[in-house]
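quick q for whoever's on today - can somebody do inverse folding on this one?? i tried earlier but teh output was garbage lol. tokens:
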């Protein structure tokens, strides 16, 4: 663990594109190659593609808002309607839910027994709760990167409060940031904004944690014909490159016209 320098990818383009889009895709790849890096978001798979909504559950655990966490886990909806009857929903999950809903069953059985959201959420194994907090940190990092991109643009120069890291694949220095959740103090502005998006206010963090991650990833293409071939530092997502190429709304790269990362969360 920790010994992986990076990962190399070979993506077959023919299965992904309509040949009418080749010119547009080529222009986007030209711009990315000219710039020399891509934004280093945590991609969707970091948070799961369906349920539970890991980072929202993490917000509830962090702030002691266990009913929010329980609703996110049980309903699979980050903006779950507070009028939803959790007892009724849990009863349905226990009796009719598919076999893969093991997490939901654990919390639902405890909630049916105690009617206590905190006891229900804390009945999960510790590694699940740690996963939710880790996902929250990843979400906050994504939000920070979008706000930073919007307000200051992206470059290889660190902004105030950021750090310089080194790409182990390409050997160049790149800007990074440390995202932390400290106990006993007020959360940072980006933590407050992240929590506010899901209706959580006046949060006093009940646990700590931090991540340090580069804001951009250097990239060059070893092949761009039928196969798109490139390497990224460890922790980088090939799906981020595909997002820049195939997303419906593509702003001018490195411009402030970002719509907060094209509504990327």
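ok took a stab at it. sequence:
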């Amino acid at each position: 663990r920790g010994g992986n320098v990076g990962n190399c990818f070979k993506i077959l383009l023919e299965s992904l594109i309509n040949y009418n889009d080749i010119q547009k895709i080529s222009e986007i790849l030209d711009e990315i190659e000219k710039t020399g890096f891509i934004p280093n978001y945590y991609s969707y798979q970091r948070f799961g593609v369906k349920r539970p909504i890991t980072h929202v559950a993490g917000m509830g655990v962090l702030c002691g808002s266990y009913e929010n966490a329980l609703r996110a886990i049980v309903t699979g909806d980050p903006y779950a309607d507070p009028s939803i009857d959790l007892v009724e929903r849990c009863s349905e999950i226990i009796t009719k839910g598919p076999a893969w809903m093991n997490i939901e069953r654990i919390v639902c059985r405890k909630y049916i027994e105690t009617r206590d959201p905190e006891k229900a959420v804390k009945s999960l194994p510790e590694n699940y709760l740690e996963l939710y907090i880790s996902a929250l940190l990843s979400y906050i990092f994504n939000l920070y990167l979008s706000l930073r991109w919007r307000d200051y643009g992206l470059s290889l120069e660190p902004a105030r409060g950021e750090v310089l890291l080194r790409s182990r694949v390409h050997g160049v220095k790149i800007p990074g940031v440390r995202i932390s959740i400290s106990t006993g103090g007020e959360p940072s502005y980006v933590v407050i904004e992240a929590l506010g998006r899901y209706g959580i206010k006046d949060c006093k963090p009940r646990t700590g944690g931090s991540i340090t991650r580069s804001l951009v990833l250097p990239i060059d293409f070893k092949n761009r014909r039928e196969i798109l071939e490139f390497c990224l530092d460890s922790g980088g997502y090939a799906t981020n490159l595909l997002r820049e190429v195939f997303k419906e709304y593509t702003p001018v790269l490195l411009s402030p016209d970002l719509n907060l990362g094209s509504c990327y969360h």
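fwiw Confidence is low (pLDDT under 50) at residues 250-265. also Strands lie at 6-12, 37-39, 163-166, 173-181, 209-214, 216-218, 221-224, 227-233. so keep that in mind when u check it
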